[in-house]
Amino acid sequence: MLKPPKLNKGDTVALLSPSSGLGGTFPHRIDNAVKALRNLGFVVKEFPTTRKLTGHHSAGTPEERAKDINDAFGDKSVKAIICTIGGMTANQILKHLDFSIVRDNPTIFCGYSDISVLHYALNTKNNLVTFYGPAAMTQFGEFPKPLDYTIEYFLKAITKTQPVGSIQPSQKWTDEFMDWSTNADMIRPRNMMGNNGFEWLSEGDAHGISIGGCLPSILHLKGTEYWPDYNNKILFLETPEGEDPAKGLPLSYVDSYLTDLEINGVFDEICGLIFGRPYKYAEAEKTKLKEILSKIGEKYSIPILFGADIGHTDPIITLPIGVKISINSEKNSFAIEESAVA
Q: What count of Cα atoms within 13 Å lies in the side-chain half-sphere of residue 202?
């Protein structure tokens, strides 16, 4: 794998949006993120799509969004790229990306949700280690500041050349929806709930290379040149909001998407599965989801860790894609065993 150089204090971090134009609708979240990143000691450079909104809910045309990525990778001053947010249209820019620029300029690339599409593309085309982690508006834009757990694991992943090592569950978490359009998110911190820690739906011990992302997003690439090899890898998955941002993705969709992975042979190939804490699910929905996943674990004899701090609830870890990780139910452990930066 191609590993980017680590990020140091004083380095320049680029902000851009490969997908949604929400940065143009809610600029206060970008302002929060810029302040937070500067407080961490980084220089922030906004690219044109950071606060751009077109009539199709994207941050510019596919060509404009791809140009920002190409330009950010080609900018020698930029040491890390953080996406502003996810969205629905990252797949539109794939044919406009210049993978030769990425190959010649390996750079930390971080984001989640719809950004999964780009993680997969950079993995398959460049063997680049990328980072499934915080976005500018959602995590770095948190009021009054980013959550400590999120920052801790972000810095461990991208500023240290030693492996992150053991991942400890967060003590508290939230999926409270606060309406950005009314600035409700700027009045108080979100309410947090206690975390019960890791839950094992299927037992076992797995060591493999990490791959994965947001469940509906990765399926955009099924059958394309960007679909990765899953052989002996540990797959991580998480679920986003539904059409209503205050509700989770309907469980019927999740069940269907998991079946898509199954009939494509993914569960025959992987050696383990990590499932992030589902966003905005009632206890009954969580129970049903765990039943669906447990059957997969039993059928394919793979360990399944449920409720990891990955994805659309907060706080989250920063999980490198393309490095050795492990899960072990007997030891109740989840670890990143290989450095992700050079």
A: 21
The full length of the chain comes to 342
Given a cut of 80, is residue 56 above it in pLDDT? no
Question: CB–CB of 122/316 below 8 Å?
Answer: no
Checking if the pLDDT of 55 tops 80, the result is no
Tell me how far apart the alpha carbons of residues 29 and 111 are, in angstroms, rounded to a whole number.
15
For each of the domains in the chain, give its residue range(s) and CATH number, in order of start: 12-162 (3.40.50.10740), 166-336 (3.50.30.60)
pLDDT digits (tens, 9 = 90+) for 248-276: 999 999 999 999 999 999 999 999 999 99
Alpha-carbon span 16 to 18, nearest angstrom: 7
DSSP label of 138: I
SS3 at position 99: helix
Is residue 225 within 8 A of residue 98, CB to CB? The reply is: no
CB-based contacts of 25: which residues, under 8 Å, 6+ apart? 53, 180, 181
Each residue's pLDDT tens digit, 21-51? 999 999 999 999 999 999 999 999 999 999 9
Q: Which tokens belong to 115?
A: 């950004």
Rounded distance between C-alpha atoms, residue 132 and residue 116, angstroms: 8
- Single pTM value for the model: 0.98
